[in-house]
Design brief:
heterodimer; A: 257 residues; alpha/beta; Rossmann fold; six-stranded mixed beta sheet; 25% strand; B: 407 residues; ten-stranded mixed beta sheet; 8 helices
């Protein structure tokens, strides 16, 4: 069975009848790069949030299996420790908590594992070495490690720190929600290089994007087009270029007819 | 007895006689009710009650001097001979008031007047406390420490503090109001910071959950002088703490930081002023609180800029985290500006932990309770990180965090 299996997933805004996901089916495994493309408001970010366990949405139908385990039964922190990662489109500032402390807490939570796990904190010198290597890879200045996470960071800096967290947590499946937005061309190259180095037999990624720009750097195995809460087309990398030239409007027409 | 001391007491007693206990109709007491409190049931204490004070968080380590006041009197009065040799005066106010009337007379009752009920009562009834005087040019590196404790349930403790720093002097005083027994504490602290002097004043208030705590702290800061004031409140049932800073000299600075945790049915009232009476002075107030259960906090803060105090830079913020739907925090900022060319800003917020922020932390594998603890600690850290001394900063962080039971 694929590592991530999404079957007929429906989701509402919590406490309302507003349905944003209207039956999503998708399967992927470690080592694969999938991209979800679609116009604004099609449900791309909703899908990423629902998969991570965002309290603002409720699943009304369908299931999500992660390595055979029912993902929807797990709280967000358990999903993370199971190996799922979300790079946020709009990462939150965490005042008073430094980058290094935050990531160390997260790493230690992962090392501890489940609720009855045993404390096994990473040794500080080992942690420092790892984070410094990851920061170098992402061309992040060392001094940033002692700043409050995302507090006063530029949009581009926040995106790099999302990828830094991904590098340190080594997820099995990483969802990258509009990671390319707000990045200039140099930053996009650096972040893409980082992603390419991390994707491999132990990690797959689901790239959520509005534009095909990032897909010039991170080559997808499959592309899915999301419109109005449904995947309306799936195909190979060529689909991105088709979208680039004809836009979403043509697909919309196709779907309607 | 010195005549001037008697006169001051007499003057205060007359005011106390005339003034009645404030009610909700008094502007400064709109949010703090004293109804139902029978102040007469608290027994005035004059004598010290021997014994070891409990629960101080900053009493360990080397000090330039230490005072412990239990009930009405001082039970420990220690002072480093090396520091004394530099001309510094430190010790029990009762013991030193006559001997050093040259230092006490110009200050006592002149910084904090007798126009307010509790200050007037204290002026009439204070029994002991401390005097710290650092002569011009002397810098005392080691901190001074004072602890006040109610040793007998139902006792009233009237404490009084005078600090005067001469030109260019430097000192740190840490003042701890310990848990002790339930009772009534009322005090006045008068601080004089002369030209180019630097005073670090740390006040830890952890009085008994059933105690009443009233305090009026007021500082006058002269030209180019700095007052670094950090307060940590985790105790007392109700009361009012006045923290007033008057910047009398050009280029003076007042940095006022406070953290507080209020739980149960407790009520905390902090009343601050930042009074700019001279040009180009800076005042910066950051108060951060965490409220649980049915607790309530009130912060009322006014920035007052006198005519001619151009180039004033004044800031005040009060932010509150409400960890219970029934907790409440009221922030009442105020600006009274009588001059042009000033920069005055303020901000106030009260709300629960942002569920989206908690989700962000949880999405990194951090369990919910741990995520909440990080958010609360980070929230307080903003105010705590302003405290330059690491030992004090760490102690205050521990003191506030241990009062939040979910952690």
């Amino acid at each position: 069975m694929p590592d991530l299996v999404i079957r007929n997933l429906h989701a509402n805004i919590t406490g309302t009848d507003t349905e944003l996901l209207k039956g999503i089916d998708l399967q992927m495994s470690k080592g694969e790069i999938h991209a979800i493309m679609g116009p604004n408001g099609s449900g791309k970010s909703t899908l990423s949030h629902v998969l991570m366990g965002h309290p603002g949405y409720e699943v009304t139908e369908g299931e999500v299996l992660f390595e055979g385990q029912n993902l929807l039964d797990l709280a967000a922190d358990q999903r993370s420790r199971a190996g799922l990662f979300l790079s946020f489109q709009y990462p939150f500032a965490v005042p008073g908590v430094t980058v290094a402390n935050f990531i160390r807490m997260a790493v230690n939570a992962h090392r501890k594992g489940g609720p009855d796990g045993v404390d096994n904190p990473v040794r500080i010198p080992e942690f420092r070495k790892q984070i410094q290597e990851a920061m170098e890879l992402l061309e992040i200045d060392k001094s940033m490690a002692s700043r409050s996470l995302n507090d006063g960071f530029s949009g581009g800096e926040k995106k790099r720190f999302e990828i830094l967290q991904m590098a340190m947590l080594q997820p099995k499946i990483a969802i990258l929600d509009e990671t390319d937005s707000g990045l200039d061309i140099d930053a996009l190259r650096i972040v893409s290089d980082g992603i390419n180095r991390l994707v491999g037999p132990n990690m797959g990624t689901l790239i959520i994007t509005h534009y095909q720009r990032i897909l010039d750097y991170v080559k997808p195995d499959q592309i899915h087009v999301l419109m109005d809460g449904r995947i309306v087309r799936s195909g190979g990398a060529e689909l991105a270029h088709e979208l680039e030239t004809s836009g979403y409007a043509d697909i919309a027409k196709e779907v309607v007819s | 007895m010195t005549a001037w001391l008697d006169e001051r007491r007499q003057q205060a007693a007359e005011s106390n006689e005339v003034l009645s206990v404030p009610s909700l109709s008094d502007e400064h007491w709109r949010f703090t009710s004293l109804r139902g409190i029978d102040f007469a049931t608290y027994a005035a204490t004059v004598d010290a009650v021997p014994g070891e004070p409990q629960g101080a968080i900053l009493a360990e380590g080397e000090h330039a001097g230490r005072i412990v006041m239990r009930d009405g009197g001082v039970v420990l009065d220690e002072f480093s001979p090396e520091v004394a040799a530099q001309g510094v005066v430190f010790g029990s106010l009762k013991r030193l008031a006559e001997e050093h009337s040259d230092l006490v007379e110009p200050v006592l009752g002149t910084i904090v007047g007798y126009d307010e009920k509790f200050a007037a009562e204290n002026g009439a009834l204070w029994t002991d406390g401390l005097l710290l005087h650092v002569p011009a040019g002397v810098k005392v590196a080691l901190p001074f420490h004072a602890a006040y404790e109610i040793a007998t349930a139902g006792a009233a403790q009237q404490w009084r503090v005078i600090i005067s720093l001469g030109e260019g002097a430097e000192a740190t005083l840490v003042e701890e109001h310990l848990k002790g027994e339930p009772g009534y504490a009322n005090g006045v602290a008068e601080l004089v910071v002369a030209e180019s002097a630097h005073l670090t004043y740390v006040v830890v208030q952890d009085r008994n959950n059933a105690s009443l705590h009233f305090a009026a702290h007021r500082a006058e800061v002269a030209k180019d002088a700095t007052l670094e004031w950090a307060a940590c409140s985790t105790g007392s049932k109700t009361g009012k703490t006045r923290m007033e800073t008057r910047l009398t000299g050009e280029g003076s600075t007042g940095r006022l930081s406070a953290v507080y945790v209020v739980d149960g049915k407790r009520h905390l009232d902090l009343d601050t002023t930042q009074e700019h009476d001279a040009p180009n002075a800076v005042s910066d107030l950051a108060f951060k609180g965490v409220l649980l259960d049915d607790a309530r906090s009130v912060w009322r803060g006014v920035i007052r800029v006198a005519e001619g105090a151009h180039g004033t830079d004044a800031y005040q913020e009060n932010r509150n985290l409400l960890l219970s739907p029934k907790a409440r925090a009221d922030s009442i900022p105020g600006l009274e500006i009588d001059t042009n060319d000033v920069r005055c800003t303020h901000g106030a917020t009260a709300g629960p932990v942002d569920p989206m922020l908690r989700f962000y932390l949880m999405s990194r594998g951090i369990p919910a309770v741990e995520a909440e603890r990080m958010i609360v600690e980070g929230f307080l850290e903003d105010a705590l990180e302003r405290i330059p001394d690491e030992r004090i900063r760490t102690a205050l962080t521990t003191a506030v965090m241990r009062r939040i039971p979910i952690f």
